[in-house]
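W.,

You were right to be curious about this one. When I first looked at the sequence I had no strong expectations either way, so I just let the prediction run and decided to look at it fresh. Below is the sequence, 310 residues in total, followed by the output.
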Amino acid sequence: MPLASSQTGYFINNSNNHDGYQGFWEPHTSSIDFCESNYLLTHVIVEPHNVWSSILGLSFFGLVGILYGNPTQEWRTFLIYFILLIIGIGSACLHASLHWCFQSFDELPMIYLIICALYAVLEVDTPRGEQRYPHLPKYLVLLSCISTAIYFKFQHMYVIFFVTFSAMTVMIFCLHVQIALRLHRENRNEKRNRKEGSRVFTNNSIALRFYALHHIAYALIASPIWLLDQFHCGKLLPIYNSLPFPLRGMTLHVAWHICSGLGAHFFIQFLCACRASTLGMVCETRRVLGILPVVVIESKHDESPTKKQS
C-alpha cells in the first residue's frame, strides 16, 4: 500500500489548506493532491467541486455515449464509453478522499481507455467481424497487465503515471492525425470528382468536424487548463478561495474535467463516423438534450449494425 501523505512526495500538496481541524479522510494516502483547498466547504469531502465536476464532466459523457453515441452498435465503442463512465466515478472518489485506492480507481481506467482507443484506431477500417491484426487483442491485454503492475509498483510516484499516460496519449494522437489526413485527401478527391453528396464525403466531413472539436476541447482548452491549475496553484488559490458561495474554492480543474470528457466524446464520435464508412452506412449528426452532438445512421447499405461485434 502507498505511503501516507505525510511520507509521500506529492506532485502538488495542498493537504493543509484548512483551518487546522482533522478532515474525515486524513491522513491522505494518494500520491497527488490538487489545487482545490482541502475541506474548505466541509470536513467530510476533501474537494467537493472536483467531485461534482468529475461526474458531470466525465461520467455524464460516458453515460450519454452508452445510450446515444454508438451508432454502429459495436462493443469497442460501448467499452470505451463504459470506461469513461468509470473514470468519472473513480475521479469523484479520489477527489472526495485523496485515498490511494480511489486514485487507482481513477488513473488505471485512464490507461485502459487509451489502450481500448488504440484498438479502435488500429482496427477502424476493418470490416465487421474481421480483424486486421488478429493477435492485437492479446497484445493489448498483456499491455494492460504490464501497465497495471508498473502502476502499482510506482503509484507513490505520480510522475510515472503522468509520463506513461502522456506518452500513450501522444501515440494515439499521431495515429488520430494520420486517419484525419487520409479523410481530408479522400474528401479533396471527391470534390475534384464532384461527388460532394457521396457517402464517403458525407461521413468524412462529419468525422473531420468531430476531429476538430476534439482538438479544440482537449488540446487547446483542457490540457493548458490542467497545466495552469497544477503549476500555478500558489498564485491562483487566493482567487479561488475568495469566490462567493457556492463557487468558493472552485478551481480550473473543474473546467479540465468537463473539457477533457467532452474531448473524449468527440474523439469517439470521430471514430464512429469513420466506422460508418467502413460498414457501408451513411451517417448524420443529431444533438442529445439539444446540445451534445452524436453520430446517427441515416441509412444502411451493406450491413446491418444490430449485432454487436468487437
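Here's what jumped out at me. The CA atoms of residues 87 and 106 lie 5 Å apart. And, maybe more interesting for your project: The domain at 5-300 is CATH 1.20.1070 (Rhopdopsin 7-helix transmembrane proteins).

Coffee later to discuss?

I.
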